[in-house]
Amino acid sequence: MSFRSSSADRHAPRTAQASATRRGILALLGVSAAAVAVPALGGCSSGGTKTPVQSGAPTGRAVHGGTVRLAFPGAGAAESLDPTAGQATCDLVRYGIVFDQLFVFERGAARPSLATAAEPGTRGENCTLTLRQDVTWHDGSPFTADDVIHTFRHRASPDRPFPSELSQYFDLKAAEALDAHTVRVPTVRPVGDPATLFAGAGLYVIKDGAKDFTADSTLGTGPYRVTRFQAGVETRLERHAAYWNGAGNAERVTLLSIDDPQARVNAVKGDQADYASDVSYATAKSGVPGTGIQVRGGGEALRTTYGFVLNVTRGVCADPRVRKAIRLGIDREALVRSVFLGFGEVAGDLFGAGAKYFPDSVPVPDRDVARAEELLKAAGATGKPFVVRTAEYEAGLNSSSELFVEQLRGLGLDATLVKVGVNEGFDPAGMKACDALAFPLGPFSLALTYTRSAAYPSLAFPDEELNEAVATAISTTSETERSTAWATAQKVMLDRGNWVAWGRGDVLSVAKEKLTGVEGRESPKYPWLGKTGFVA
Fold this sequence. Notes:
α9 runs antiparallel to α11, α10 packs antiparallel against α12 and α15 runs antiparallel to α16. Strands 8-9-10-1-11-19-12 form a seven-stranded mixed sheet, with helices on both faces. A six-stranded mixed sheet has the order 14-18-13-17-15-16. It has a four-stranded antiparallel sheet with strand order 4-5-7-6, covered by helices on one side. It is globular. The protein has three domains: 226 residues, Roll (Dipeptide-binding Protein, domain 3); 154 residues, D-Maltodextrin-Binding Protein, domain 2 (3-Layer(aba) Sandwich), CATH 3.40.190.10; 109 residues, Alpha-Beta Complex (Dipeptide-binding Protein, domain 1). The chain is of the alpha+beta class. 28% of the residues lie in helices and 20% in strands.
């Protein structure tokens, strides 16, 4: 699900505001600009027997050897081996096993990868990175600080199609090597938890001097190396036996780019693939597609939160009584039954579930239609136009918006729905003209969730206490202060914010029953495949 740009964004510098683009939201949601929308579910009910869902891979040790074939949504000719360019699901999965990052997200928190530590200065004025010393590139050469410095400068270069958002926090061009495995990076504003920012930036480390990325020239430090690449069709990879975190199980991995979700399932059913990602709830509800095949879920901790962001730059939602009325008046149970079809649960009004610092429990408002109608009447909103905007970034997002509009009409708002394609969903003019935007978000860090949302005027919630709390959470070097600051930020959003998060849904896939090693880590939409293989 990883929003951005606003004159009200007091905890982001003007350089961050200037660099805000639609791509920032798409990256947060995990959707490429070239993505193909999944058909809506049409608001069907959840009656009938639920399809059994496996919550994890089969037990047992994977055997070494063989080929694993996995199907993901692609981006056609726009796919790229350049880890600073591609944003399709297939691109991101590929980057994750060809390259490594300094830090990665796992279960909502930053974990060491190529860097073992990121120590902030006493006042957050710089960051010292300690790098692993046992890492080699696919050509056998050693990984050093020079590679990290080249990566920083490459990502910060103005000629990059998507310059790194890390430039909001770090002076990447001023990074220097203290020795072969230590790098110091100055900050442009205080940073107290640099590992989380690095983990959230999608910073894949490239070899010193690397500029071109072809099947023959692309080198990484990851568990697999590219042997063939055909954009929009397939990528073939072979195991890097000297991988620093232990060689992979499969000898070869083939990534198939298949946009249509049913075609991905059919590829598994027809034995052209061993795994299909992003399976719709309707498909999963219809049952297991064949013998020896499972429907799998990423687990409750990695569910996607579905909801709406209310646009407080427009008159209706600027009134806190209207925001409270919508939260009290919607039927969350009906939304969950209609959209998730048994593969989800109701939620309170916070995004970021699964991330570090997220509350153990979030209250779900009791539905009170009478009170909601009173609040709307007191605010003078009864009968006022209310535009809801949606695009099918996740299966069922459009159908949830249809039901949401019906429920708003029942409360007394003159609600209408605008459906657009994925490429148009976060058009600034379109967002500005709506009162609520359908929004799904996975278990990304709170830093990513709150700073990106604050940077887009139509999504931001301009609140002094919120801005101060987020600024403190980003800048402080104290774990206690950071935890308290995030608690404050989330309390503000629950008390008076502009989020209506109504449910959390499973991220589903279809896989051969003996396939293992497909790890959710940051999100099951983009699994890490470094240990994939088959059990005996």
